[in-house]
Amino acid sequence: MLDARAKRVRPHLDDKILASWNGLMLSAMARAYAVLGDEAYRAAAERNLVFIQAGLWDEKTKTLFHRWRDGECDNIQLIGALRLPAFGRH
């Protein structure tokens, strides 16, 4: 059985990072910190926000992109030219 499996073409590795999933995680970690007061949740939320700002957010154009993979964003813009309180812009 392992021999037959080894001969199959392996499926593509789905290693993309999505803004929507990261937003859900950021919200969950922030809420967990607010409710439980555990610094690990706050630290995780802050690390996630740093990644979103560095990898998915274009400060120059004020654009949030949909997907990040292999160090690059896709060309789908989720939010552009908006002020986002979550990013410290009021």
Low-pLDDT runs of 5+ residues are none
Biggest sheet statistics: 3 strands, antiparallel
Can you tell me the overall shape?
flat
Output the radius of gyration. 18 Å
Could you please describe the fold and organization of this structure?
- This protein has about 90 residues and is of the alpha+beta class.
- It contains three helices and six strands.
- The protein has helices spanning about 1-5, 20-35, 40-55; strands spanning about 15-20, 55-60, 65, 65-70, 70-75, 75-80.
- It has a three-stranded antiparallel beta sheet with strand order 1-4-5. A three-stranded antiparallel beta sheet has the order 2-3-6.
- A hairpin with a 2-residue loop joins strand 4 (about 65-70) and strand 5 (about 70-75).
- Helix 2 (about 20-35) runs antiparallel to helix 3 (about 40-55).
- It is flat, with a radius of gyration of 18 Å.
- The termini are far apart.
- The mean pLDDT is about 85.
